[in-house]
Amino acid sequence: MNASSIQGTNPGMNDAILQVEHLSMKFGGLVAIGDLSFTARRGEITALIGPNGAGKTTVFNCITGFYKPSEGMITLNRNDGSSFLLERLPNHEIPARAKVARTFQNIRLFSGMTLLENLLVAQHNKLMKASGYTILGLFGFSSYRKASAESVELAKHWLEKADLVDRADDPAGDLPYGAQRRLEIARAMCTGPELLCLDEPAAGLNPKESAALNELLIDIKKTSGASILLIEHDMSVVMQISDHVVVLEYGRKISDGSPQSVRTDPRVIAAYLGVDDEEVESVLTEVGDEDVIEQLDTGPDAAHGPGTSSSYLAGPVTDTIGHSEGERVTVSKGASKAAQVDAKAKNAPRKPSERATAKPAAKTPTAKPRGGRK
Ligand SMILES: Nc1ncnc2c1ncn2[C@@H]1O[C@H](COP(=O)(O)OP(=O)(O)OP(=O)(O)O)[C@@H](O)[C@H]1O
Ligand SMILES: [Mg+2]
Question: What is the model's pTM?
Fold first, then answer.
């Protein structure tokens, strides 16, 4: 046991596979993630969503050791009860010891190698260990022959699950796009992860490929014992397969809950969809959130200066959004739609008679999920 490994006292009792606490990541003056905390539960699919540049990939890069966070703690609780502080673990130990695997926003396969070869390369570490790291071991040790046979079996297993076994001997580069995405996931699964991090696996897929992906992810969740952390812009994927959704905007968490609660959250509707104020209002009407509509009706937003309709790509005038401990990140004026909803809720003047009759925000689940802006 070292500083990066703390033994859990209650093996099997901790239902959080991943705990992100007060995570911040700064690039010079840019706060890409500010004081972010969330939990991914064991056996679930947790989706991380938000507009472009919200900090989703940066969160993955911190979890998987590509970046060392400026602040915060990332705890991975393995199924056997052991725990790891990922921000302290050397990069190469994150897949090997903490059992975290990932795929990338841009496909990274060995395109000249066959599908089977791609899956065997992923198991290289296990095979080298079995060889005793000697040339004699490669040819002589029965442990190596056994590990080698097991690796081929595991590769076959995941090719079947990903519906790719018929193309096992073709170069990976010859596969259609959707099949390459599934191959990447199969490759990650060959490393035996307990947490699988997928960065926009449905990007660029047609509806048929997207349905095949959903099926694969649900199969992984049900049969492999791996939990999934999923970055996704495709709302149909998020709403269909996620158990829990965390929403980021400008590196801050603006919503966290069930897919149903998140999709009716006005802050999410405003921020994630990046729509005009009028459109936010019409979506809120659809959602039936009278309290927030009433607040939006109170006229120009004094807290954000002139003009009520500032888009995500608002002009050069700057504004700031609070992060941890008084730190602020500079963004375009009025860029944070979630902050606008908050400010309007805070500043809305109320007549005493209205206060007496004000109803709590009632949300009816009538809003349809909409696609992202990617
Ligand atoms: N290595 C880096 N150096 C400087 N800035 C960075 C770096 N990586 C990310 N950023 C910045 O951090 C912010 C968050 O980027 P990130 O890629 O995490 O967003 P994202 O939510 O994944 O966006 P998208 O949906 O477009 O993939 C952006 O402003 C980005 O420019
Ligand atoms: Mg990204």
Answer: 0.75
Domain final residue, candidates 135, 170, 191? 191
Structural domain includes residue 361? no
Counting the structural domains of the chain, the total is 3
Which residue's CA is the closest to the ligand 1 atom numbered 25? 52
| pLDDT tens-digit map of 68-109 | 999 999 999 999 999 999 999 998 899 999 999 999 988 888
* Ligand showing the shortest atom-to-Cα distance for residue 59: 1
- According to DSSP, the residues that pair with 197 across neighbouring strands are 102, 229
Nearest Cα residue to 230 out of 44, 10, 12, 7: 44
- Element at 120 (helix H, strand E): helix 115-121
Cα 201 to ligand 2 centroid, rounded to whole Å:
11
- Element of type H or E holding 198: strand 195-199
- C-beta of 104 in contact with ligand 1 (< 6 A): no
Tell me: do 151 and 219 sit in the same domain. no
The answer for residues whose C-beta is within 8 angstroms of residue 276's C-beta and 6 or more apart is 309, 311
Across-strand partners of 271?
none
| Domain assignment present for 367 | no
Distance CA 207, CA 217 (A): 15
| Same-domain status, 149 and 288 | no
Q: In this structure, which ligand is nearest to the CA of 32?
A: 1
Distance, in Å, from the CA atom of 270 to the CA atom of 267, rounded to the nearest integer, reads 5
Full residue range of the structural domain in which residue 213 is found: 1-99+192-259
